User: Fold this.
Amino acid sequence: GPKLTLATISGPSEVDSFFIERLTTAAVNLEGLEAPGLERAHLGAYGLLGIDSLEDNRVLLDFKQQKMDVLPSPRGRGKTRIENGMIIVSAKKRAGRMIISTANINGTKIEIILDTGAQSSMANLALKEKLRPRQLRIAHVPVTMRSVTGALVPGEYNQIRQIEVGGLTINDLPITFADNYAFKALGLQDKPAILLGMDAMKLFDRVMIDFGNRRVGFDLPKGVERRSPTRMASAQ
Assistant:
């Protein structure tokens, strides 16, 4: 297929594409797709289902049972059976992304972009400049990340001591600060922002992302903290 331009963490990249005649799952039936072609070693999987294909669906990530379901978004804003026990947070859409604007760190407003395709959470340099040493768990640790095209991006790893998201407080959020082009593509390079990856979502028992109704549900673990060096989120 034709060349496609991707907004990766390292910058805009032109890649080859492939035509997919039909792609079917239990909840999604897509036809006539132009998909970018990427090396599996860089992608970390045989393929990724893009947000554009989930427009009228919700994704349920169940970390206790280690499974993911894609289901049609329900009509109306009332809680469904799946959402029982979850803390529901409203979101908005920008460039097809789900963004939570009700997050803050000690009063500093943060935009949170949900990114189920990212293994690690990342923050932009605008947030790094806002944070004080007492709001971080450790001294910055230099790291190198690799984009889906194989390009290397330098960053600094740390943990944010506490961040409030709607009715939640997340403690010791693992984060990498970097000059990530994805923030620029979303118009967020100058606003404190976080790309919330799977490392943070795994702190919860379940996460529900409802693209159709623009809301996100978080299910807190029952009772004890998860066995992890990162402390569990808690309800306010």
